[in-house]
Design goal:
The chain has 396 residues and is α+β, with helices and mostly antiparallel strands. The protein is built from six helices and nine strands, in the order H-H-H-H-H-H-E-E-E-E-E-E-E-E-E. The chain is elongated, with a radius of gyration of 73 Å. It is found in: Nucleus inner membrane.
């Protein structure tokens, strides 16, 4: 340990400290160090400074080199450093040991990372396999229980030869069916060609003639008309009538002459109030009446969904020339469940010719406000003006 110079000493403050580790150290110092170590074998006493003991020693041999006080103070430090092992060996060993440990730690860390990755990949694979198995199980269960089985599913497996045989047999059956259809088509074509002219004539004949196939004398086109004085009044609905309906050219109510027209369609009828009324038809001449025909559209084509406004019970009278004498010709019932055209035979025996005929409606099929009459036909035989006057009938 370096000591500070004493006060009053002649040592210069810029004096360099000798390098005892250098190979170029002074030989005199080495000799002095050997001599001083021989003189200090006993060691200093307790509490006595080593420098003081050296200065107080007077047993130095004559002629020995003189050692300065500063060099003498550095001798214990030199001895301690010579006794310590060289520090370079320990540092190199420690550095090597640290390097080995770092390499081992890095290897261990790499191994741990690799093991963790492998474990994570195996866990992912196991999770994916489990999810895939669950999905396949759910799909299989749905196919088995939720999807209905096919009705035409084959119950047995066919070989390729059997399959070709069935296809061949079905093809033959189709060819046979096609041949039968061709034959039937030829027969139909021949029948159609043979009967087309006859069928066309029959259709045109039926369209041109009346379905009743009897002459109608209650037809306006041949001279029939309505006696309005002896006919019931038209039905007027005060609740639904508009102001302009009271004008003749805007009045939608049909007059009684509509029953003398051949046009019969829903709504084209003469309506009178209530379920009882009458209409008197003036014939084109004196006619020996034999039948009366009433026509009413069927309930299937009615806009109201029924035929409750149709006449039900009615009576027929023949009027003489004086318009006062009435001859009862029969009482009948029009059934709406039957045909829309119904013909009734009159009780005109012996046959009597009348210029007028009266149709008296006694009831309808349930309509509370009005009764509709679509068409009335009078059948019989027309006589001359002087014929039939002698015929008498039962007065009403």
């Amino acid at each position: 340990m370096r000591r500070s110079p004493r006060p009053g000493s002649a040592a210069s403050p810029h004096k360099r400290t000798p390098n005892f580790y250098s190979d170029n150290s002074n030989s005199s110092v080495s000799v002095t160090s050997g001599d001083s170590s021989g003189h200090r074998s006993a060691g200093p006493g307790p509490g006595e400074p080593e420098g003081r003991r050296a200065r107080g020693s007077s047993c130095e041999p004559a002629g020995s080199p003189v050692v300065s006080e500063e060099q003498f103070d550095l001798l214990p430090t030199l001895d301690l450093r010579q006794e310590m092992p060289p520090p370079r060996v320990s540092k190199s060993f420690l550095s090597l040991l640290l390097r080995v440990l770092s390499v081992l730690l890095s290897l261990v860390g790499d191994v741990l990372v690799i093991v963790y990755r492998e474990v994570c990949s195996i866990r992912f694979l196991l999770t994916a396999l489990s999810l895939l198995s669950l999905f396949l199980a759910a799909l299989w269960w749905g196919l088995l229980y939720l999807v209905p089985p096919l009705e035409n599913e084959p119950k047995e497996m066919l070989t390729l030869s059997e399959y070709h045989e069935r296809v061949r047999s079905q093809g033959q059956q189709l060819q046979q069916l096609q041949a039968q259809l061709d034959k039937l088509h030829k027969e139909v074509s021949s029948v159609r060609a043979a009967n087309s002219e006859r069928v066309a004539k029959l259709v045109f004949q039926r369209l041109n003639e009346d379905f009743v196939r009897k002459p109608d004398y209650a037809l306006s086109s041949v001279g029939a008309s309505i006696d309005l004085e002896k006919t019931s009044h038209d039905y007027e609905d005060a609740n639904t009538a508009y102001f302009w309906n009271r004008f003749s050219f805007w009045n939608y109510a049909r007059p009684p002459t509509v029953i003398l027209e051949p046009d019969v369609f829903p709504g084209n009828c003469w309506a009178f109030e209530g379920d009882q009324g009458q209409v008197v038809i003036r014939l084109p001449g004196r006619v020996q009446l034999s039948d009366i025909t009433l026509q009413h559209p069927p309930p299937s084509v009615a806009h109201t969904g029924g035929a409750n406004s149709a006449p039900r019970d009615f009576a027929v009278y023949g009027l003489q020339v004086d318009d006062e004498t009435e001859v009862f010709l029969g009482k009948f019932t029009f059934d709406v469940e039957k045909s829309e055209i119904q013909t009734f035979h009159l009780q005109n025996d012996p046959p009597t010719a009348f210029p007028k005929v009266k149709i008296q409606i006694l009831s309808n099929w349930g309509h509370p406000r009005f009764t509709c009459l679509y068409r009335v036909r009078a059948h019989g035989m027309r006589t001359s003006e002087g014929a039939g006057d002698s015929a008498t009938g039962e007065p009403h």
